[in-house]
Amino acid sequence: MSVPDEKTMLNSFDENQSRRVLELARETLAIEAEAIQAVHARLDADDSLVRAVGVLYRCTGRVVVSGMGKSGHIARKIAATLASTGTPAMFVHPGEAAHGDLGMVTPQDVFIAISYSGESSELMDILPVVKRMGAPLIAMTGKPHSSLAQLSDVHLDISVAREACPLNLAPTASTTVTLALGDALAVALLDVRGFREEDFARSHPGGALGRRLLTHVRDVMRSGDAIPSVTPDMPLTRALLEVSQKGMGMTAVVDADFKPLGVFTDGDLRRLIERLQDFSNLTIRDVMHIGARTVHPEQLAVDAVAIMEEFRINQMLVIDEDGILVGALHIHDLTRAKVI
Description:
With about 350 residues, the protein is an alpha/beta fold. It contains 16 helices and eleven strands.
């Protein structure tokens, strides 16, 4: 049996089939967009979302999110979004909860139960226990009169007019609405909590934002013997050895207290060669330029990046609050640290 090549597979639909694919795709997106708009309109009908955010804000424990099947997948995402935006949260599988995992839930927690029908047997088996222990219950269902809705302290209506599935069976529009409403809860809650970029970075230290907001100059600068430095009376020819050996394309010129007087870079050397044929009698003081750009070790590394970009330089000196040279920073150091 021959295997169709890639081109044949890509062109396996005739014109009518291709048209049908696009028609269903557009219809799916339209149905789900309409479902979200319907939930948007319902927010003004009652104060359930506001009450739900209030319950979550007052929570002194964790937010436990649970659901079966597709609702379970959405519950995992909602728990992850809450956790990454300042609200301790976790997902508990209702089936596992009935066999011991319910021990994770405490009276200080808030329980969010998700079931479109509101009659999920796995959830209904454990929720009376949750209620007896005193944990507030927020239900997300598409049936306001369901058993789960009636048991809850706050009910969030996730009903949809129809699913995007042509058979009106597979959870599609309803799961989209549930996910969107979960995001709405998380966003409203993070605003109430005063959650900031720095807080987000602390829970995402491995991401680009975390590196940008948590990496300080002290974390990436070169220090000690790795700092290229010379005294002002040193002959230029000897100072060039310091530039070469330290591999930063520059050297700081410091006084007896190790405070920077100036800096000399590879670029300065190239410009010097264009002007002079013989510079064997020069000292570094004769050719250094004063007013080197500096940063403090406690500044964010992104601040150093901004200064380098503004003044089109590749190196900077790092000084402490007394003006003493404590480090040197090259743009390659920032690249290796993935700050840029």
